[in-house]
Amino acid sequence: PKEIFLRDYKPPSHSFAKVELAFDLREQGTTVRSIISAVPASGSTGELFLHGDESVKLDGVTVNGSAHERYERGSKGLTLKDLPNEPFELSITTTIEPQENTALEGLYKSSGNFCTQCEAEGFRRITFYQDRPDCMSTFTTRIEADKAKYPVLLSNGNLIDSGELEGGRHFTVWEDPWVKPCYLFALVAGNLGMIEDKFKTMSGKDVTLRIFTEKHNIDKCAHAMTSLIKSMKWDEETFGLEYDLDLFNIVAVDDFNMGAMENKSLNIFNSRLVLATPQSATDADYAAIEGVVAHEYFHNYTGNRVTCRDWFQLSLKEGLTVYRDQEFSADMNSRGVKRIGDVSRLRTAQFAQDAGPMAHPIRPESYIKMDNFYTVTVYEKGAEVVRMYETLLGKDGFRKGMDLYFQRHDGQAVTTEDFFAAMSDANGADLSTFKPWYSQAGTPRVTANGSYDADAKTFTLSLTQVVPKTPGQDTKIPVMCPVAVGLVGPDGKDMELTLDGKSVGTTTVLRFDKAEATYTFTGVEAKPVPSILRNFSAPVRLTTNLTQDDLVFLMANDSDAFNRWEAGQTLLRTLLLDLIKGDGQYKMDAAITTAMRAIIAGAKEPNADKAFIARAMMVPSAGELSDMLDEGTVDPAKIHEARTFVMKTLATELRADLEATMKANSAEKYSNEPADRAARSLKNTCIGYLSYLDDAAIAAMTYERFASADNMTDKIAALNSLSDKECDERIKAFAEFYEEWNKDPLVMNKWLGLQAMSNLPNNIANVKALMEGPAFDIKNPNKVYSLIGGFCASSVNFHAADGSGYEFLADVVIKLDDLNGQVASRMVSAFTRWKKYEPSRSSAMRAQLERIRAKKGLSENVFEIVSKSLE
Ligand code: DPP
Ligand code: ZN
To answer: Where does the record place the Peptidase M1 alanyl aminopeptidase C-terminal domain (predicted)?
Structure first.
């Protein structure tokens, strides 16, 4: 396999002014004809390389209408030779077999319908083309198919022609006036139902909005449609960005490697991110749908109108678009709770990646398979980097930067440097020390030590930073970290801050870009407690000299919701890490029980933020704790035991509070109002705690709630609370759930996932049985993510001391590798951090990685992850 480097970037040898595609869709042997208006760049050698997968059959090439035979076909594509030195018309005909495509890239079939997925490099499985994002062109697409089987024929842009053909066939022609790279091309042909709505844009244009699904799911699209309309409005209000065509389509398909895809005016979605009713989807699903519909819509500008020069720039569109969808969801819901959720995910998944063998900067330097770089680093850390511009420049400054970015680059394929330049130039700001965020991997470690001088009435904050080594990057330089700081006075109120003789409000952003720096606040009348890194203003690992009393004080008083939550998490993390590293004599810290009691009591106050309280009650996850332990020491069984001890002790000591809060927040009837959703999450958090008690009455009560739930959120919460318990109620509940829902594949994914994650001893046998059962299908990515991905999340069973969990995963990866390299490489990622574990587990994981590496014909996707892990 060949590694591709950023430093080797060269502009394309030809530009494509116009592309016409014609698809003749068949049950076997679909033909694709392309007519490309090619323009040689100056200095052209008369050679043009077109990417093309080995699965594509080449039927013929013509240049200016005559057959052209001077070409070489290699494993990666076609080199055309002796081409004219002036613009010419290139035509290529290929035959492909979408019905046999299990990789789900290019053109393939899902539930009998045709659909496409071209990002990153799927277009080369359709035809020969310059499959690179800096080759932008307008596309016209003609689709022909059997009318009875495929009444709906869609592509990008506007419908300009359609009609009947002989033999029961029909056709449509679509024209997309906006230039785009081929990764944004899409085609759908199927027997689909549709809902329609309308949006009037800020300048008064009417846009038709359509969501297509299989007909039996048509009543499940309303929430996605509402989310789309909210997104369109938000992007106008927040960034002045107006939709640019008369039609916007979303199509939901069941077999999809990723979440969704932003193809120009024809978004294609994994059906789990479209379909929802209160009975079949949870509150978390509703939130995910809202966020992803927005994300794909927002790509219309950040990604489509301005795209990436090459795939190393992926964060240019993904980091920015994740930032935009995070802001949208924060505006639609509770801002503080949204931020807490996003940071938790970043810390659990991204910090771990940044500390392991797959660590890479948000702008990677090289890749073997681009699919492997659609990572939490490029996406979530990338979004944090964008958020830091906003923190440094302010909301208005950020908007100025965005405006300049579009003004300069609309219709272009650009780089993160261009985005950086737009932000700096629009604000006349010197951000040079910010740049290493793009090129350095690893999470900076920041320490903050505060001290109060009562005589001088000053508070001094000393900061240090170190960026750790990562593979291939031994030396690092300090990077600008915006550190948002407030000082909370003894009365619990924010103090007015004076720094360098200037009054700076109650929260100030320190531009910390050295290895060490000291900041002295003056006029500090009483000893404060500092609130550092408010709203998680930089993606760093922070250590402070705050005491337990300080943290309890911040939990109760900090005006910053994130740091109020973080104070509690810091207390819990410290306790848990002590227990995990200790001698096995578990002892609870009374201060934590008291603090938790106070949090729960807060739910009784008139304007309580119950969603926040539910989050504050959560104990750090096994993944987050594992990330904080030293290499070579992690024992998942110990982490599980320590967490269980803490949960069980809190449940025992706070039982009355938990039961009262659960009851007070149990609704008669389902409602989707934010206050009801918040109460629901609080109630279900209480049930989750209570399930740690060995009490038959709790199991009975949980089953009762399961059986009588009128919505999926409550049903899943109850089922989850039973899933680690050895009891009849668990068996009954899972069986009844199957009876009720086995016809709904999305709901069955939840059923598979919950069983797979269970920490009941020897549950691997159950998982293996489920794999053979009717609810599972190894060709469907969602099912693999639920069952196999779920299993990898079980501390007890995936990490079973006898290595059986690891062997099982390797068996599955080897099987998946022949079907779908992308899905296989996501699954094998559970092994990447093998060095983190204690010796017996790490050597067992390593042995499985070696076994996978030895497989004949291993996909490039899996090869890359496995070989980097073993380095
Ligand atoms: N469709 C994926 C996303 O939107 C990749 N672009 O993130
Ligand atoms: Zn995206």
So the answer is: 549-871
CA 262 to ligand 1 center in whole angstroms: 6
Residues with catalytic roles: 296
| All domains in the chain, ordered by first residue | 18-188 (2.60.40.1730), 192-270 (3.30.2010.30), 307-439 (1.10.390.10), 445-545 (2.60.40.1840)
Total-model pTM: 0.99
Looking at 742-820, list the stretches that DSSP marks H as alpha helix, in order from N- to C-terminal side: 745-757, 764-772, 781-784, 790-792, 804-819
325 lines ligand 1 (CB under 6 A): no
Residue whose C-alpha is closest to residue 122's, from 385, 371, 300, 350: 371
Q: Which amino acid appears at position 619 of this protein?
A: V
Long-range (24+ apart) CB contacts under 8 A made by 863-867 are 863/1, 863/368, 864/1, 864/367, 864/368, 864/369, 864/372, 864/825, 865/358, 865/372, 865/825, 865/828, 865/829, 865/832, 866/828, 866/831
pLDDT score for 118: 99
Q: Identify the nearest ligand to the CA of 258 by its number.
A: 1
CB atoms within 10 A of CB 471: 14
- Tell me if 115 CB under 6 Å of ligand 1: no
ipTM: 0.98
Nearest residue (by CA) to ligand 1, atom 1, is: 261
What 3-state DSSP class applies to 84?
A: coil
Task: Find out whether 455 and 446 touch, Cβ atoms under 8 Å.
Answer: no
Report the alpha-carbon distance of residue 300 to residue 293 in Å, rounded: 12
DSSP of 25-37, one letter per residue? Answer: --SS-EEEEEEEE
Please tell me if the CB atom of residue 135 comes closer than 6 angstroms to any atom of ligand 1: no
